[in-house]
Design brief:
CATH topology: Amino acid/polyamine transporter I
Shape: globular
CATH architecture: Up-down Bundle
GO molecular function: transmembrane transporter activity
Order of helices and strands: HHHHHHHHHHHHHHHH
Strand content: under 5%
GO cellular component, one term: plasma membrane
Keywords: Cell membrane, Membrane, Transmembrane, Transmembrane helix
Main location: membrane
InterPro entries: AA/rel_permease1, APC_superfamily
Largest sheet: none
Number of strands: 0
Distance between the termini: 13 Å
Length: 432
């Protein structure tokens, strides 16, 4: 890992690459299914909650920039024990889940012109784009940073243009609201914020690459806030554009490819194909950035002795091994789970990890880093409320995914407790 190898622009490109790839194309339809006609507002509330959450990461990264970002935060908060390791592993797994989510979205959009919405081609294409990201990442940081900048510029410009034209074509009305058959459902709306938060969680990619960003004490925080600001503008613009051209029922029916469906009435067949191309660029860059980040986080967890490591007969560095593990896990999820279940798993893993980060910083580190305790408590409360609402909704619509998430999260904590033999430990000075 090369210190200072990622510029401010490259870091913003990486962060927005993960967020926009997952948020707009993978989650718009699912958020609309929960929030109804208020799905555009869900993105705004998600950005507010994410901004509170980002506070902990920014304060910690300003104090101790690290390529192990979240793992470093957790270890400094809880010491080198199972609590820190399990929470860090939840974060890494949520990033792997995001890779599979965005890869499945890539397949859904690319196959839409052929009227293919299911079948073996969806997971095959999803695995293909994950493998592509693997080979690009092997080439090194500078290749990833350059591609992140290029793809971020193309997709943000293209998506913003789509939003403006589609909104204008729809007469600046909001068909989704006027055609809604149901009223406001508070629990459904709050639950939708869990997916909106998932759409913004790419800012953690920046935290995990802290030491590799130029002038990290200053630029990590700047990069996070710039990325969130760019994304909320793009999300809101596109959500309004989709709602101007499709009813809620139409958005939900096409939830895996809702932007492409909204492009047809707004921009015609050429607009439809343009949206498919934009989706492909956005999702590929999302997978690239996510693989880049999670492989480094797993390598850092290995270096910090928070997880065991096996070569499985492979040669090369630990980082090359973690790239392989990342790709294998993401591909497995992309094959066996649909978009809705992948997104739900990601939300459960991420929100629980996020609460543990805030509690650790509040309980052990807030005085050392000069953090405001009220902001930290608000971040925890927002996460808890959203998680409770999301769990309630999923227990009613898909109780098995709640069971899967509960078993998987419990297994992570039990495994780490057995491996490390203690929940917490005295903090030690660390170069990380």
């Amino acid at each position: 890992m090369n210190k200072g190898s990622i510029s401010l622009a490259g870091a913003v490109g990486m962060g927005t690459g993960v967020m926009i790839g997952a948020g707009i194309f993978a989650l718009t339809g699912q958020i609309a299914q929960l929030a109804g006609p208020y799905f555009a507002l869900s993105f705004v509330v998600g950005a507010i909650v994410t901004s509170f959450s980002a506070y902990s990461y920014i304060k910690m990264s300003n104090a101790w920039p690290s390529s192990g970002g979240i793992a470093m935060i957790l270890q400094k908060a809880y010491g080198p024990g199972a609590m820190a390791a399990a929470a860090a592993l939840l974060m890494a797994l949520s990033m792997v889940i995001s890779e599979s989510l965005v890869a499945r979205t890539f397949a859904s959009y690319v196959l839409r012109p052929f009227d293919i919405t299911d079948g073996p081609l969806v997971p095959i294409l999803a695995v293909g784009v994950i493998l592509f990201a693997f080979f690009v990442n092997i080439s090194g940081n500078r290749s990833v940073g350059l591609l992140s900048i290029i793809m971020a510029v193309i997709k943000i410009g293209g998506i913003a243009l789509f939003g403006i034209i589609a909104l204008w074509s729809g007469g600046f009305t909001f068909a989704a609201a006027s055609s809604a058959s149901t009223g406001f459902d508070t629990t459904g709306f709050v639950a939708s914020v869990a997916l909106s938060i998932l759409a913004f969680k790419g800012f953690t990619t920046i935290t995990n690459s802290g030491a590799e960003i130029t002038n990290p004490h200053r630029n990590v925080g700047r990069t996070i806030m710039i990325s969130i600001a760019i994304c909320v503008v793009v999300y809101l613009l596109v959500a309004l554009a989709v709602g101007a051209n499709l009813s809620i029922d139409q958005i939900v029916a096409a939830k895996d490819y809702s932007l492409a469906e909204a492009a047809s009435p707004a921009l015609g067949q050429s607009g439809f194909y343009l949206t498919v191309v934009l989706a492909a660029v956005a999702t590929v860059s999302g997978v690239l950035a996510s693989v880049f980040a999670v492989s480094r986080m797993l390598a850092m967890l290995t270096d910090m002795e928070m997880i065991p490591h096996s070569h499985f007969g492979m040669s090369g560095s630990i980082r090359s091994h973690t790239l392989v593990y990342t790709v294998v896990l993401a591909s497995t999820l992309a094959v066996f789970f649909d978009l809705s279940r992948i997104a739900s798993l990601g939300a459960f893993f991420y929100l629980i990890m996020d609460v543990l980060v805030h509690w650790g910083v509040f309980r052990h580190l807030r005085h050392e880093i000069g953090a405001n305790g009220i902001v930290l408590l608000c971040a925890m409360a927002f996460d808890a409320i959203v998680l409770a609402a999301f769990t309630t909704m999923k227990l009613g619509s898909d109780p098995m995914i709640v069971l899967y998430a509960g078993v998987a999260i419990s297994a992570v904590f039990i495994y780490e407790r057995i491996y490390l033999k203690r929940w917490t430990a005295p903090q030690t000075e660390s170069g990380h």
